[in-house]
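ok trying again, last paste got cut off:
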Amino acid sequence: MTRLTHCAKEGLEDGLKEHLEEIHSRGYTILPDLLDRDAIGKMRAELEPWLRGKKMGRNDFEGLFSERVYALLAKAPSIATLIEHPSIIGLVDELLPRNYLLSAALAINVHPGETPQRFHIDDAPGGSRLLQKPREMLGVSTIWALDEFTDRNGATEVVPGSHRWPEDRVPEPSEIVQVQMAAGSVVVFAGNLLHRGGANNSESTRLAITPQYCMPWLRQIEHMVLAVPPALAARYSDRIQEMLGYNVIDPGFVGYVDGVHPKRLINPDYEGRARRGELSSS
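nice, full thing came through this time. structure:
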């Protein structure tokens, strides 16, 4: 197994093209040190009520020695800063079409004794499995390290180039890369890249946040408008609300509620594009 470590800071604006090229060519890229200690501490504090070591995964994939916290925007508001981080949005805007959605947002706390997951891809919920590889990515995933990812504590493992593989190809041990990165860093990868959570052979937990984005026409992994209903969605930016699903596909009207824009569930005074004189429908 190869180990890949990134620790130096770099600016996205200068490196945007390089990061995009890495995602297209090898399937992933690492952006180091985007969060400071204060931001990480705030997220930890908001997650603490759900990370008591009492509710482990229900199966080997969730992790029998791992805690998962779903519906994060209903529980930990500061996670929104990760979901709409300018560096991430800058990449996803280039990789997915307009009106893309937030497909999932969860915390994963891997405890000592956890075993490796099976290799999988993230952009194949429901019927998209009918679209066999090789194919273009249908989503983009991110994994933010709130703890350092090391060679012993369950660092994510990826298979470079596997986003271009046929459906039945299985990775050899020599093709697996372990993503080591400092706390506050993030790995961004194509939704059809083979990856897995690694084994935790350390004596401490490894906490990460994983927001995932998908095509506007693909059903989200998590039913976001139920996970984050209008009263809670109202606290977030327009961009977050749109990614949750309080939006219609532009141009068009897919996503309406009772014939009107779903933003009116959040703000009854919301005026659509037609009323603003921008387009013929809203």
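cool. DSSP finds seven helices and ten strands in the chain. Residues 5-12 have pLDDT under 50 and may be disordered.
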